[in-house]
Amino acid sequence: MELIVPITHILAVLVLLLIVLRISDAFTILVWQPLILTRRFKKQGISGPRYRILYGNIDEIKKMKRESQLSILDPSSNDVFPRIFPHYQQWMSIYGETFLYWNGTEPRICISDPELAKQVLSSKLDFFVKSKIRPEFLHLVGMKGLIFVEGVDWVRHRRILNPALSIDRIKVMTKVMVDCTLRMLDEWRNQRSDDKTEQLVLKKEMNREFSRLTADIIATAAFGSSYAEGIHVFRTQEELKQCCAISLTNIFIPGTQYLPTPLNFRIWMLDRKLKNSVKKIVVSRLQSESDYEDDLLGIMLKSCKSEENERKLDIEEIIDECRTFFLGGNDSVTNLLTWSTMLLSLHQDWQEKLREEIFKECGKEKTPDSDTFSKLKLMNMVFMESLRLYGPPFLSREASKDLKLGNLEIPKGTTIIFPLLKMHSDKAIWGEDADKFNPMRFKNGVSRAAKHPNALLAFSTGPRACIGQNFAMIEAKTVLTMILQRFRLSLSAKYKHAPVDHLTVQPQYGLPVMLHPLGEFK
Ligand code: HEM
Hints:
Bound molecules: protoporphyrin IX containing FE
Membrane topology: Single-pass membrane protein
Strand content: 5-15%
Main location: membrane
GO cellular component, one term: membrane
Binding site for heme: 466
């Protein structure tokens, strides 16, 4: 007898199967995997806060961060880790320095050992890869920029971009850095002469001033544009960062980034705006009659015409690299200058030492040039100390397969977090004065400043270490030299010491500073 099954039944069975499969997938992701992983780590002596279905530990993190952000620290305290990462602080005190926690359904293991950090960061590129990030963040820099590309694509991008940021190229850019800083100083002078009541002392919110200045410098030095042209890129990136901050407070459910919610609409709109602003800068260079200059954009556009595939970038990749460098060149140097200014305003003795060094190596009025920077040893030490105490808050990587790390077995898909703020203030590594501002610890170089040669990871280490390190240091030295030649800095009474994690460590209420002219302000 022939069995005829109606088509509707077949469809119904198929739909049921799909639902069952989905439910089983969901069960695996939401319940089974976290359970298995928790057990695997427990067997190795690693525990942590309890996993909650779907949310992991996100709610606890949010609550602890909200509470800690109400506190104000004593300005002389550099013990900022508990304010910035109260959840890590609490979990370390309960579960030890290595612990497991859950960012939604994503397992994260927090490790503070500099030796293990070195092993991960210097390992083969395809072992520990850049950790997954929320899709919102990709709109900030794009998927095809240096920060997120992997494997052979990363090798190709880095090979093309390295020459644009070589020390010789950066020395040529010094003039741009000086000109942009002079422009800022001119603006200060003009504003002061408008305000007849305030002749002597200038009051400035330095975080804002530095943010504008570093934006001007990267736009001019790397893209041959200017703050005026780059401003749309920076403003849009700033707005996108705020959207990312909002979305970070919610759990991430894959697929929800495509839903037409008001926040997603805003992100899509800003993404389009950002791409268009960058495109404008690229197109205007493409249309310029002259040969492309040897700045970052020029080098990328030349690569576009290369016959060799391994030396070629396409236009989409160039646009994402532009987004990457606009962001990378702005925030991190702003913070280095901001926190160094805060520390020098607080430690007048060090401010005076740096001024003496500047007067000796560069003079009282001469603008710094490419020969000046290697002579500013004390300033270098101050920047290192500032990066140690207020530099990048953490680094992360994801295990691309089951891997061994020290005595630990790390299952595929686990994210490893290195809490730099904690590692950079660990007394066992840096000595009893680890939470004190003491640039002298760097007097024999970075690798001899602590008990482990790779203890300072502010620029990371290994193949994916910061490509902009030389650019950042020369830029910061130019700016600080020119300010200290003209002013003595002190903290305004309005300053509230409240470092907060906004992708980088930033002053929650800005950095109001009093600038006392040293002579006639020229
Ligand atoms: C004080 C200033 C800076 C600090 C502290 C800093 C820190 C870092 C760190 C820690 C990394 C590694 C991230 C990781 O491994 O996950 C990194 C990578 C990177 N940085 Fe910087 N950075 C600074 C300035 C700059 C500047 C000025 C630029 C651009 C001109 C830049 C562009 C980049 C890029 C493109 C990468 C990705 C490199 C790669 O994956 O190959 N950074 N930076």
